[in-house]
């Protein structure tokens, strides 16, 4: 059980790494509750082994009532959080699968573009992203933006990684943060809440907005307003 649980954590780490390169709403589908469940399960299993080694005469660990309580709580946790996140998980996985399929399908076609003019495509990317305001789409994916720019998903991902040293999720959130800042300059926050400005810019939650804003600006939205009155 420990082996499979640790293996599941490895798969989760790879999943989380991939979604940040494929979609702009990674925070909402990173399924942190899965990681928390797996870590809790590992801890319970390690505690059981520790008791068996340290206190072999104490009795079978598995017969203790609190052992059943621990597993009971964990079972309810995975059931409730799993059920409440079903829709997000389904949407997230479908989007990831679609992006990975399009990337895999286009790899042979994109080989001649391996020596792409990076400067040209970075300018094209900026122009298309600014002109269409595609970043305001809260469910924008790598494949969708690649279609707008006219570049394969794999080459677009490479351009963003090499040109900006960022993953796709952080790159798009950077544009969203700048959009909120521009709205602040226009004093739109006087009539609308910061969350409303964030949603208008493409963010799908207050938590994601605050985290992204601090990452790209080094300060929280409220602190930024105070510093730039």
Radius of gyration: 23 Å
Q: Per DSSP, what share of the residues sits in E-state strands of 2 or more residues?
A: under 5%
> What is the general shape?
elongated
Biggest sheet, in brief?
Answer: none
In total, the number of strands is: 0
What is the residue-averaged pLDDT? 83
Derived from helix and strand composition plus strand pairing, the structural class reads mainly alpha
Helix content bin: over 70%
Question: Order of SSEs, N→C?
Answer: HHHHHHHHHHHH
For the terminal residues, how far apart are their CA atoms? 56 Å
- The helix tally amounts to 12
Poorly predicted runs: 107-113
Write the SSE topology.
Blueprint: H1 2-22, H2 26-29, H3 32-54, H4 65-84, H5 86-110, H6 118-132, H7 142-149, H8 153-164, H9 168-185, H10 194-201, H11 206-217, H12 221-227
Description:
By secondary structure, this protein is mainly α. It has a domain at 2-88. Helix content is 76%, strand content 0%. It starts with a helix and ends with a helix.
Quick overview:
By secondary structure, the protein is an all-alpha fold. 76% of the residues lie in helices and 0% in strands.
Q: Which tags fit this structure?
A:
12 helices; 0% strand; 76% helix; mainly alpha; single chain
């Amino acid at each position: 059980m420990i082996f499979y649980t640790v293996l599941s954590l490895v798969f989760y780490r790879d999943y989380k790494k991939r979604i940040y390169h494929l979609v702009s709403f990674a925070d909402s589908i990173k399924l942190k509750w899965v990681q928390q469940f797996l870590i809790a399960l590992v801890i319970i299993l390690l505690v059981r082994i520790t008791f068996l080694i340290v206190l072999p005469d104490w009795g079978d660990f598995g017969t203790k009532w609190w052992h059943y309580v621990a597993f009971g709580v964990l079972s309810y946790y995975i059931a409730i959080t799993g059920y409440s996140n079903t829709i997000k998980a389904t949407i997230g996985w479908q989007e990831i699968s679609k992006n990975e399929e399009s990337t895999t399908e286009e790899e042979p076609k994109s080989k001649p573009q391996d020596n792409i003019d990076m400067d040209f495509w970075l300018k094209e990317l900026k122009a298309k992203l600014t002109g269409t305001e595609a970043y305001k789409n809260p469910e924008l994916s790598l494949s969708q933006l690649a279609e707008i720019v006219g570049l394969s998903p794999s080459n677009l991902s490479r351009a963003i990684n090499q040109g900006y040293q960022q993953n796709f999720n952080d790159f798009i959130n950077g544009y969203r943060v700048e959009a909120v800042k521009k709205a602040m300059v226009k004093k739109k926050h006087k009539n609308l809440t910061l969350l409303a400005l964030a949603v208008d810019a493409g963010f799908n939650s207050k938590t994601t907005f605050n985290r992204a804003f601090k990452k790209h600006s080094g300060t929280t939205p409220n602190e930024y307003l105070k510093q730039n009155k």
